[in-house]
Amino acid sequence: MHGQWSSRLAFILAVAGSAVGLGNIWKFPYIAGQNGGGAFVLVYLACVFLVGLPIMMSEVLLGRRGRRNPMSTMRILGEEEAGQPQWQLVGLGGLIASFLILSYYSVIGGWTLHYILLSAQDSFANADAALVNELFDGLVGSVGKLALWHSVFMGLTAGVVARGVEQGLESAVRFMVPALVLIMLALLGYAINSGDFERGLHFLFDPDFSKLTPTAILIAMGQAFFSLSVGMGAVMAYGAYLPQDESIIKTSIAVVSTDTAIALLAGLVIFPIVFANGLDPAEGPGLVFHTLPLALGQMPGGALVGTAFFILLAFAGLTSAISLLEPVVAWLVERRGMRRGAAGLLAGTGVWLLGWLTIVSFNVAADVKLLRGTFFDNIDFLTSNIMLPLGGFFVTVFAGWVMCANSSADELDPSAGIVYRTWRLLARYVVPVAVTLVFLNAIGLFD
Ligand code: PHE
Fold first, then answer.
1. What are phi and psi of 373, to 5 degrees?
2. What pTM, to 2 d.p., does this model score?
3. CA–CA separation, 22 vs 271, rounded Å?
4. Which CATH code is given to the segment(s) 8-442?
5. In angstroms, what is the span from residue 83 Cα to ligand 1's centroid?
6. How far is the CA of 194 from the centre of ligand 1 (A)?
7. Which residues of the chain fall short of a pLDDT of 70?
């Protein structure tokens, strides 16, 4: 059945590889920008540590106990703990969410691939806002380019998953995360020297609560789920490979801190550049692709730094994408008896087809606006802000209320110390209440 990670570090690396991705560098800055900065960031941080962290611990513990794909794990544990196999529906919801997320994630992953080429060709040299705009519009305005890069990104993802996650992933992530942080520190140096660092800092950390709408709170919570990869079973699937004697608590804290540090670092790099160049912090999904090329075009060695940066970003996206496809493929293999290769091909093709909805959202169907906006906006809102929080809600309710304390203590901390008791308090009360309140607030119940 399932293999095992070679060590705790390997597991941390895999979960960190899932968590650190486009969500930190592409998504966090642009939605922080759209939602007014400071106050949004504060809510985001609260959600990460009070809601996301306990959910991550719950997912790992359920995954390790069930040792299967998320859907089977929820079914088996549901039966074992309460005679309720229908808990598998939580796993099913997660599979659907991961499928939907990957469909747009792969398109954006494709953008990073295109930007590797642009950097390598030194296209950003002495760039001004107009040139950067032109380059970005040239990409997202072209169905052909988007489709090409989406296909490459999806092909890479499915290819890796089809061959089995254990090989290669560990060493890739071990190198990637530190290298990514290093390059971002170099970019931070540029932002401090040449950007409007003070204004960027002020925007990110000086909370103006009048900007905090109920929807912004929901989006901040959704982003915490998205960035940590919790609420859809990715972490549960990886937890299935965790050796019994490793500490779930320590690994979860390590991953959550790393992920959060990288998101904040991205914000610290991007907003000073935004303000120094008179750009709009609320411009949307193109934000990183409009700001970083400006910096890269002006700094010495920018072509090289940029190429390395976008390669690493693509890598970070790829390890996240792998974790989105893995649960679906594991399910097809374990429950439908498919071969891994065939399962990877089938799931990859399905996701690829769905990705077309996102491709056209940036050009020919940009004016098709339903509920929340374009197809892309809707898929993103539905998954990040509704499906992931719901999934996380049920996972923690299961781990905190349905599972008996002996089972959860056994996995987390047999001595049932203070950390275990804090987790249980958060899992039983704080997470369910917080998610419920944020939902009710967003649908206008407290207006
Ligand atoms: N956490 C990833 C990122 O920040 C995206 C992701 C979401 C991956 C959900 C897996 C599950 O880019």
1. 130, -140
2. 0.96
3. 17
4. 1.20.1740
5. 32
6. 31
7. 1-7, 165-168
